Amino acid sequence: ILDLSKIEAGKMPLHLEQVQLPEVIDELVQTVEPMVRARNLEFRTSVAPDLPVLDTDRTKLRQVLLNLVSNAIKFTHEGYVSLAVRHVGERVRMTVEDTGVGIRPEDLEAIFEDFRQVDQSHTREYGGTGLGLSITRKLLNLLGGSIAVESTYGSGTRFIIDLPCVAPRPKEGAAATTGAGNASSAGA
Predict the structure, then answer these.
(1) pLDDT at position 159, please?
(2) Residues 121-145, mean pLDDT to the nearest whole number
(3) E strand intervals along 11-132
(4) Where are the domains of the chain?
(5) N or C: which end of the chain has fewer CB within 10 A?
(6) What's the CA gap between 74 and 72, in Å, rounded?
(7) Residue 176: left (phi > 0), alpha (psi -120 to 50), or beta?
(8) What is this structure's pTM?
(9) How many CB atoms lie within 10 A of CB 164?
């Protein structure tokens, strides 16, 4: 809830740095591996070899991916969860896909709303605050990215993230730091 408040107030700082996406993916795989094993699922990754170094906020990007992959694992009883990453022009496209319960067409528009959980008897059992996807979308907006969702109720969901290779610089007065900026200001 604190993250949501900071984002909405325009006080969520960006810590821009050079990010090697394959490293972030490796960390993510290590983090979710116990959940994947516990649910007896397959976790597939496909990372294109031509990915550029991103200029973005590593922590926020990691949170976005962790939110999406964790949700996919939570709502998948059998089958797989996958994360595919590729370079598309000046952007990187990341796709999180699962063979889970899916989302009803009438619920797709509302899943990014604050405190919104799809009101289905089989999803209520999983708990949560209903903030994960809302925060995910807002973090992506902060990073200059976007998110879309496709789902077939009963057979899975696909989230598509498009993220610029270079995150937009914050507006005047907004909080942001860069790796280079921190180092150069230390001696000032």
Answers:
(1) 97
(2) 72
(3) 14-19, 42-47, 54-57, 80-88, 91-98
(4) 13-166
(5) C
(6) 5
(7) beta
(8) 0.81
(9) 17
